[in-house]
Amino acid sequence: MPDVPPFKAYIGNLSLHLTEGHLEDFLDGLKIKKVNMMNNKEGAFKGFAYVEFEDKQSLVNVLELNGMVCVMSCHVSCHVMSCLSRSPLRPNPRALLTTRVVVLLCVVTEFRG
């Protein structure tokens, strides 16, 4: 949980028919800074959004709703956004590559003795 901004959350498992108005109703009472609903190339909603909150407490409050609230017949999932990845479900490939390079360098250095 971040102690300093940005306070971002991944909001997923949303109905493909959800509008920004529905999402704002779901987040009513929380201090929202920015909402980014993700669309495909044709402009259709992909079923998830990234939301930035003005304060930590709003982020904490939305996380408490994870799996507990049903919006348009879908149980909404809410997760903290990591600094290392765009989505909490997909690790940053560059971070993984860096880790592999460091491990490889350690092995090569140790092998050379």
Description:
The radius of gyration is 18 Å and the shape is globular. The longest helix has 20 residues. The protein has a four-stranded antiparallel sheet. Strands 4-5 form a two-stranded antiparallel sheet. The protein starts with 6 loop residues before the first strand and ends with a helix. It is of the alpha+beta class and 113 residues long. The protein contains three helices and six strands.
Summarize the structure.
With 113 residues, this protein is α+β, with helices and mostly antiparallel strands.
Numbering strands along the chain, what is their spatial order in the largest sheet?
2-3-1-6
Assigned CATH superfamily of the largest domain: RRM (RNA recognition motif) domain
Distance between the termini: 41 Å
What is the 3D shape? globular
Q: Secondary-structure element order, as H and E?
A: EHEEHEEEH
CATH architecture label name of the largest domain: 2-Layer Sandwich
Text of the CATH class of the largest domain: Alpha Beta
Number of domains: 2
Could you report the average pLDDT, rounded to the nearest whole number? 76
What tags apply to this protein structure?
113 residues; alpha+beta; Alpha-Beta Plaits; 2 domains; four-stranded antiparallel sheet; two-stranded antiparallel ribbon; 3 helices; disordered C terminus
